[in-house]
Amino acid sequence: MLTFGRLKPKFMILGVQKGGTTSLHEYLVQHPSILGPTKKELHFFDSFQPLNIDDYHKNFPFKLVTNKMTFESTPRYIYYPDVARKIYDYNPNMKFIVVLRDPVKRAYSAWNMYKQMGESESMRNFFKKNEITSPKEIFFSLLYSKETFPNFLKMANYELDNELNSNFIEPSIIRRGYYKEQIDTYLEYFSLENFLFIDSSSLKNRTFEELNRVASFLNISDFNSLELDLEMKHQRVYSEPLSVEIYDELLLHFQNKNKGLEELVNLNFEWMRNKASIHV
Questions:
Q1: Does the keyword Glycoprotein apply (predicted)?
Q2: Which DSSP letter does residue 39 get?
């Protein structure tokens, strides 16, 4: 279908954080039928500020006439409250791609990212100022206002101990792994046919196979004939290994929280079935 003027997103990569969304985004913009936005994460529908749709659209390409499509990739969209309704009000036919990663490894990767971000004074100042406009995001108060950055277990337990009565949204290394309930929230508005779910390990190990699933989902040509840069993006070195004991304990928690996920998304996840100890 031809588009005239400013392109509007036809699909979104919803998440999950630390699941490989940056790599997938960079793969997709190499396809001749897809044009990327000005930046990957636009954080429009998860903002607590009033929405200005014209400002949002300025992030996307302008073409006099084109048959190409555009999209955005904001991993917080799958987790943040009320985002599904906002997107539905914007476009009830929106399509979504969701990359799902072992939630323990995802949580540990997020903790490691926040720890490394705290080494930057500019990032600490950013989070401090952000709490004024987003009081439910307490990154600075919880993580960066202390002398010592909390270890992974302490940060995980903070969420687990406050699971039922917490008012904060961020940081959220544990609750971001409750994939089943997050997807169910979107299904209150959108049909399951609007979604493509990808196992992050399959995206990493069988990249072209997964990209061709994306192509079929978006009704574009496959990726087989394209020479792609398949370098994985945003890979960080871990400051320390995750202990086997903590992995096993959290794995059981996430398995219980995600009962029914495999049937819902029609994928089999090793982490949902595996009770063996796995190092990150």
A1: yes
A2: S
* Token pair in block for residue 48: 């607590």
Q: What residue ranges define each of the domains in the chain, with the CATH number in brackets?
A: 3-102+177-218 (3.40.50.300), 103-176+237-273 (no CATH)
Query: Token pair of 128, please?
Result: 């401090």
Predicted TM-score of the model (pTM): 0.92
Quick: pLDDT tens for 175-184.
Answer: 999 999 999 9
CA distances to 114, 121, 222 from 150, in Å: 10, 17, 45
Start-to-end CA distance of the chain, whole Å, equals: 45
pLDDT, tens digit, for every residue of 18-42? 999 999 999 999 999 999 999 999 9
Buried b (16+ CB within 10 A) or exposed e, 234-272: eeeeeeeebeeebbeebbebbbebbeebeebbeeebebb
Collapsing DSSP to helix, strand or coil, 38 comes out as: coil
Of 45, 48, 29, the C-alpha closest to 37 is 29
Residue among 28, 38, 32, 29 nearest 6 (CA): 38
Percent of the chain residues topping a pLDDT of 90: 73
Paired tokens of 44: 């429009």
The residue written with tokens 């302490």 in the block is 154
Read off the DSSP letter of residue 175.
G
Beta bridge partners of 197: 98
Could you tell me how many residues make up the chain? Answer: 280
Q: Cα(179)–Cα(101) distance, rounded to whole angstroms?
A: 10
Residue pair 174/16 in contact (Cβ under 8 Å)? The answer is no
User: Which of 51, 80, 253 has the alpha carbon at shortest distance from 168?
Assistant: 80
